[in-house]
Amino acid sequence: MSWMTEALPQNPAMAHAREVLQHTFGYTEFRSSQERIISHLIDGGDALVLMPTGGGKSLCYQIPAIVREGTGVVISPLIALMQDQVNSLLQYGVRAAYLNSSLNPEEATLVERQLVQGELDLLYIAPERLLTPRTLDLLRQSRIALFAIDEAHCVSQWGHDFRPEYIQLSQLHERFPQTPRIALTATADTPTRSEITQRLNLQQAVEFIASFDRPNIRYQITENDGNARERLLRFIREEHPGDSGIVYCLSRKRVEETAAWLRSREIEALPYHAGMDNQSRQSHQRRFRQEEGIVIVATIAFGMGIDKPDVRFVAHLNLPKSIEAYYQETGRAGRDGKAADAWMVYGLQDVITLRQMQTTSEADENHKRIERHKLDAMLAFCEITTCRRQALLAYFDDHLEQPCGNCDVCLQPPQTWDATVAAQMALSCVHRTGQRFGVNYLVEVLLGKESGRITGFGHHRISTYGIGRDLTAAEWRSVYRQLIAHGLLSVDLEGYGGLHLTQASRPVLRGETPLMLRKTRKMKPKRRAKQMGTGEVSDANQALWQALRTLRLELAQSQGVPAYVVFHDATLMEMAERRPRDRQQLAMITGVGDHKLERYGDAFLRVLRNIPDEGQE
């Protein structure tokens, strides 16, 4: 059952929930389906919540945990994610703690005692620790308000973040049948939702499905023409100078090389991958969370622990293995609702590499088949000539009525051409060379290159030798990549990447089906259209904005927490624009709850009073 919009009946528990929303968290109204989810959970119901990153999922269980009697237990997959959440809650004055391996025995014992004595509103814990006999015994001795299973897509064995421990979380319903449960994720197609419901024993849960749309993210995807790093550098320098961002690469080697290369070009870039020692990984992640302007270059090992709201771009130098992975990774940009970019270059070699990884994996054939379909869908998404956001949302059974106007296809509509004859040449060349060669060799044959290898195989005498000189090598590679994306060619992954004709190629070869393909192009950055709700600081308030950020950074550094834990950028922007003069006015700023007002109010008011408004004479 999806959420609805009619007003909820008034009751004391929801009145309390609205007080917590305003006085603890500093918000005057609920967003999207938050109010319905919170009401359902407070009343003791189970819920499955699908809400995009940055949509306010955390409040859906944090507020009921505070309102209901007892402690809300949050199952979270990563230590860094727990620490960020607890640090943020403590800033709001919420009684929160975590139990994980980062605590020494004395610290862990203190948290356990607080749990049993009812002194915590929220406790964050990893699934492995939750299901130990000791922890289960502690929970039985305690009053539990609810169980929140965060990143619930980790339960899916077909997903990109599978965690086997999550499957065992069905025990919660068996051991604590009267305690409400809420499973939350930002990434789940229809089959994954069914799997979550089944594996977590949530068949009776109400589903709350908000839109997957992230309108503040601009999607840009283009072909890799051999200078991906230079284009990445230009993108960062021209569109995101001094911004925090993430660059994803497929291999550890490329992560190291790209980070070093960016540093040599004066971009503060740090590598992150599973092959690094734990101390270096933690150090780089800590710097990324606490410093401004850091770019992390990473494999997908840099994943769910990213709770940083001001990541302004996510770039991919390789093709992700599925649309779910792409949505999850790009969703780490712009969590604060401000304008952000999802930028990607990809090439045919990415497809071949990913398919080879699938073929050589130890997964069973059913798993491999599903992974192949997911990669095919990802490649097709890259090659579309219609609005990317509409296609991305449609994959998750969401619907966008009109093209978004904020993706590369909308901003720079791709040109197409009648590639029927070129496709026939390309396909015929595959056939006449014996369906055993890769793209580079086939292109050389089409261009009539003279080489000992071509002569040795006798391919200088076949009919397709030299018939493709009207196109460049790059254009032929684009043709072959798109023929693979359209399913007209397959790649022999157990051999050496040779191309094979598929049944779907026959109508094109016989001239029965015309074929329109995209023209190769280079991405030219276009000025971003003004977006509603993304937040801007006027020129007149730039000095105040910088002074507020400086104060926030000093306060954060004195406590050893990221700056956004003190206040988000959006809160500082509202301060700069509205210029509150006293505590009463400051309390009306979004994100300023009672605890933060008491703790930081006077310091920020001093800055607000001392910096003149440059827009006034």
Describe this structure in words.
This protein is α/β, with parallel strands linked by helices and 617 residues long. 45% of the residues lie in helices and 12% in strands. The chain has a 7-stranded parallel sheet with strand order 3-4-2-5-6-1-7, sandwiched between helices. The protein has a 6-stranded parallel sheet with strand order 8-13-12-9-11-10. The termini are far apart.
- The total count of strands amounts to 17
What level of helicity do the residues show?
Answer: 40-55%
- Percent strand equals 5-15%
**What general form does the structure show?**
globular
How far the N terminus sits from the C terminus, by CA atoms, comes to: 56 Å
Spans of at least 5 consecutive residues whose pLDDT stays below 50 are: 1-7, 525-534
Number of helices: 28
- By CATH, the topology of the largest domain is Rossmann fold
The CATH architecture name of the largest domain reads 3-Layer(aba) Sandwich
Strand order of the largest sheet: 3-4-2-5-6-1-7
Tell me the Rg in angstroms.
27 Å
So what's the oligomer here? single chain
What's the CATH H-level superfamily name of the largest domain? P-loop containing nucleotide triphosphate hydrolases
What is the name of the CATH class of the largest domain?
A: Alpha Beta
Query: What is the averaged pLDDT score?
Result: 88
Structural class, judged by helices and strands? alpha/beta
